[in-house]
Amino acid sequence: MTRTGELVFTDLYELTMAAGYVAADHTDDATFDLFVRSLPDRRHFLVAAGLASVLDHLESLHVTEAELAHLRRLDWVDDDFCDLLDGLRFTGEVRAVAEGEVVYPGEPILTVTAPRVEAQVVETRLLNLVASQTMIASKAARVAIACGDRRFVEFGSRRAHGADAAMQAARSAYLAGSAGTSLVSAGVAYGLPLAGTMAHSFVMSFDDESDAFRAFARRFPDGAVLLIDTYDTEEGARRAVQVADELAPEGVRIGGVRLDSGDLVRLSRSVRRILDDGGLAEATIFASGDLDEYRIAEIVAAGAPIDAFGVGTQLVTSADAPSLGAVYKLVADTSGSRIKLSEDKVTLPGPKQVWRVSDGDTDIYDVIALDGEELRGHLDGGARLEARPLLETVMSGGRRTRPDPTLAESRDRCAGAVWRLPDRLRSLHQRERPYEIQRSPDLTALVETLTAAHRSHGNRQDGENRR
Amino acid sequence: MTRTGELVFTDLYELTMAAGYVAADHTDDATFDLFVRSLPDRRHFLVAAGLASVLDHLESLHVTEAELAHLRRLDWVDDDFCDLLDGLRFTGEVRAVAEGEVVYPGEPILTVTAPRVEAQVVETRLLNLVASQTMIASKAARVAIACGDRRFVEFGSRRAHGADAAMQAARSAYLAGSAGTSLVSAGVAYGLPLAGTMAHSFVMSFDDESDAFRAFARRFPDGAVLLIDTYDTEEGARRAVQVADELAPEGVRIGGVRLDSGDLVRLSRSVRRILDDGGLAEATIFASGDLDEYRIAEIVAAGAPIDAFGVGTQLVTSADAPSLGAVYKLVADTSGSRIKLSEDKVTLPGPKQVWRVSDGDTDIYDVIALDGEELRGHLDGGARLEARPLLETVMSGGRRTRPDPTLAESRDRCAGAVWRLPDRLRSLHQRERPYEIQRSPDLTALVETLTAAHRSHGNRQDGENRR
Question: What are the structural domain ranges in chain B?
Fold first, then answer.
């Protein structure tokens, strides 16, 4: 795709608003929360992802000469505004939940505090990055739950919405439990384990299926995986056994077979028998074909002898919930905390902290509090409960405050967070009782004060809540 | 996102197959068709998109030193294979349907003929590019149909799956009828018209909604569009009128208002009255808020006085069909035509041409034929019918054979193709009688011969069909 500078990946209204702020001298610091309003159907939690790419974006925010030249053609873009864009860098602070952490609706995944123009113009890209990656990680966590102790590999690049989507999906899926990806560029960029063997076109390129198996096994003598469903799956399994026998004297070993169509439960059983009877008890069975967490859970429940799953389209597009309702809302500026009250969409005001309360083994509830608020007395479960804050400062003055965690560390964090979920939240299906999200006393009081002030003063925000 | 060379945006199995082909000396020319197997629910046609990016990819296919270094760590990657990858460029031929053209399932959107390794390794990226862009263009064409003579603007960047997805969505939506995009980088890269005004955060940044309107209108005196639903939509409309009156002496003109929530039919009527009564009869009403073709069709049917729509999430994720079942299948090589017969997925063999048969005003049916086949006598409707071929050679020897059409030309082509659709195919809802796709006599005969040969020889492909 055409390359652009980072700054212009933004909605035009971010720039028109920037011009409006400057003209009105509204260039004080502002704080925005990025959060998801509600869970998609059948989801009970989200897995935060995308922070590393957000920080990359903010550290490299700039506009190129060519982009400026293009923008100059807009009639409202004058020299002053061009100068502003030309010099614009991100100099603010970011507080964020770590990648791999479980998060819930209404909780800030990240919070940006910066001069208003800077904080505003990054909205589009921050939402784009966090929402799409969190969506995939959240889907992948469900696939991992369905798989139990079996492995799965992401291989949906061809159905992802462009290159970034495929790269992000491979990374986000790994973060949330995949064993690797088929996408070579993601392996190169992120160090992910790579998986893949052959397609039907390889088998079809030979006059005979057995010839295709021989050629492939000789080239990959240390455990080739053969795709056996191009013509007839069970016949393909018998040919794999024959080829294994035939090539064993050459030191060639067959590692496994792949099924990509048909009744995977029935076929995996008959193929397992054929392999076992043919002396290939060690060969694994890999299954693919429009799988998702629901189908995998059925297959696992049926006890099908499948060792690993390939999950593509349904995972990389999060097909049953292909977007997350993530938003980026003004919550405070130098004149106080801000609240938005249109219809039933209330935004919680003020800079916040999210506390996760655990009994040591299991996370029990979260408390959304004001940043700096003391939570004494709020942990009503007594001494056995412990609370830890989720939002940490990760950027200050426009620079990372520390190196990113490694992807392996974030993956471990995710596994731990999913492990600590209340059991009911690991359900793939029913709407169980949701995780409990409390509001702290100070946040509750602030919402009440601002709402009352708003109602009594028309739309005027109350200056009493200056911070 | 991390930048990679073009070649490694591929599934690992494309590389393992390439190694297998080389080891087995299977490096003759092969022809692959890229096509969509079936239409998503409620879709009656597709709009081809993505060809320009496909040709870019093929012309720049290469691997970087860093990527080679990474690949070397895989135990099966030896010096010979590294040399092969290092020297790999695309040198083949591409025949394709033009961007903006209507296509149907089973019809090749593009066909690649190249040395087998080259043709194979580009599979992943070609599917990724064509499927995602065709998906969006097809969705956008439906939105355009729903809008009728009203305009719509794409502004879903924040919900797209990464940067490429957003850029592609903006371009594909414009190709199929949007009036423009909110995404500045897409405006810069593709010359798309840009649209956008202000967000709720702008309004909330001022103590009073009217102050926000004043500041914005003064900065954009030649037709600012004001977002009026931050607090109360009708009250917002009255304030817009007041501000227009107040600032008229300064030469400031209000261009319109935007509604982003609530009952758009009811609110647009009351807002229209307020604007008309306040002397703003020329001001337009722009509406947004989780719109798709179905909702827009309802709003239009209700006669709501809305001039233009903003369409975001539902469009850029193609939410009701977030992937297309596009595939890339071997159809011929130097030893003959190839067919795949697993389960109910039959791939039509041989290099092909698609003929579109029209009565001059309306397209009536398509004929999938073998390339070079004479269609005489097949146009049974008599002299009034005309047939035109859809697949044209666009790349030869790895280079474009001509400049790409401009985006404006492709957009016109799309408008014409949608215009020539049989009326029933413009339905958004019911599964109407599908468009008729015929197979030519020679193609039918080839399928029968190959199927019979396959059945009688086990999986052996029949050499009688060498071309």
Answer: 12-136+321-465, 137-316
What's the mean pLDDT in A59-82? 94
Closest CA to B31 of B98, B93, B88, B121: B93
A32 vs A95: CA distance, rounded Å? 11
What is d(CA A169, CA A157) in angstroms, rounded to the nearest whole number? 8
The helix-helix angle for A264-277 and A233-247 (nearest 10°) equals 30
Q: Do the Cβ atoms of B2 and A220 come within 8 Å?
A: no
Touching B: A residues 54-73, CB under 8 Å: 66-67, 70-71
Q: Thinking of the domain A12-136+321-465, which architecture would CATH place it in?
A: Alpha-Beta Barrel (3.20)
Burial class for A442, CB neighbours closer than 10 Å (0-12, 13-18, 19+): middle
pLDDT tens digits, one per residue of A46-57 = 999 999 999 999
Is this complex's ipTM strictly greater than 0.90? yes
Query: Using the beta-carbon criterion (under 8 Å), do B196 and A12 form an inter-chain contact?
Result: yes
Percentage of chain B with pLDDT > 90? 86
Q: Among the residues of B157-305, which ranges form H helices?
A: 163-175, 184-190, 200-204, 209-219, 233-247, 264-277, 293-301
Q: Considering the domain B137-316 in this protein, what is its CATH number?
A: 3.20.20.70
Give A128-152 pLDDT, tens digit per residue.
Answer: 999 999 999 999 999 999 999 999 9
Chain A residues touching residue B196 (CB < 8 angstroms) = 11-16
Predicted confidence band at A462 (pLDDT cuts at 50, 70, 90)? very low
Question: Judging by DSSP bridges, how do beta strands B253-259 and B102-103 pair with one another?
Answer: unpaired
Domain A149-316 adopts which CATH fold?
TIM Barrel (3.20.20)
The answer, for A134 touching chain B at a CB cutoff of 8 Å, is no
Please list, in sequence order, all residues whose beta carbon lies within 8 angstroms of the beta carbon of residue B132, skipping any fewer than 6 positions away: A159, A160, A161, A162, A165, B50, B165, B168, B324
Q: Is B198 on the interface with A (CB under 8 A)?
A: yes
pLDDT digits (tens, 9 = 90+) for B194-214: 999 899 989 988 989 999 999
Nearest by CB to B10, which of A116, A184, A342? A184
Between strands B102-103 and B46-47, the pairing is antiparallel
**Element (DSSP H or E) covering residue A259:** strand A253-259
CA distance A287 to chain B (A): 15
* Of the partner residues B4, B120, B162, the one whose CB lies closest to the CB of residue A185: B4
- pTM of this prediction exceeds 0.90: yes
Inter-chain contact B26–A215, Cβ cutoff 8 Å? yes
Outline where DSSP puts E strands in B98-204. Answer: 102-103, 110-115, 151-154
Residue scoring higher pLDDT (A432 or B245)? B245
- Distance in angstroms (rounded) separating the CA atoms of residues B286 and B306: 6
Q: Tally DSSP H helices, then E strands, for chain A.
A: 16, 18
pLDDT tier at A381, thresholds 50, 70, 90 = low
Q: For B80-134, how does the pLDDT look when each residue is reduced to its tens digit (9 = 90+)?
A: 999 999 999 999 999 999 999 999 999 999 999 999 999 999 999 999 999 999 9
Question: Cα–Cα distance between A155 and B8 in angstroms, integer?
Answer: 14
